[in-house]
Amino acid sequence: xAFDIPGHQLEFLLAFDGRIHHLExxxxxxxxxxxxxxxxxxxxxxxxxxxxxxxxxxxxxxFDNAHGVPPLGSRFKRRPQANDHWHRTENDPGRPYEFKDxxxxxxxxxxxxxxxxxxxxxxxxxxxxxxxxxxE
Length: 136
Fold this sequence. Notes:
With 136 residues, this protein is α+β, with helices and mostly antiparallel strands. The chain has one domain. It is 19% helix and 28% strand. The protein has a 7-stranded antiparallel β-sheet with strand order 6-5-4-3-2-1-7, with helices on one face. A hairpin with a 4-residue loop joins strand 1 and strand 2. The longest helix is centred in the last third of the chain and has 18 residues, at 102-119.
């Protein structure tokens, strides 16, 4: 399935590349996103990794498409062609994620971030933003 991401959504998402949002108590969120040629593994033309980290750097939640993951359930299920997946916990090897559109991806990621931060008793307040990408 090929996606046609509207230009304003793509521009919005690409602006997050290299950004780190520092949260209270040392937690942080990192965004990596690049436009790539659309193909079977990345039909939307995006390479992305959105991650929430604990103060010690340990990943707590992640949404990315760096590699494929097996489907949940039976080992006889076919592996999804697209590499989109998410990690619900720090030890989760990944579970398939169905990319619908940019807005849903962002909403789903932040819903999980909020869930985990609530479990840790941490507010979702961004206290600083760091830009780590090099200017082009």
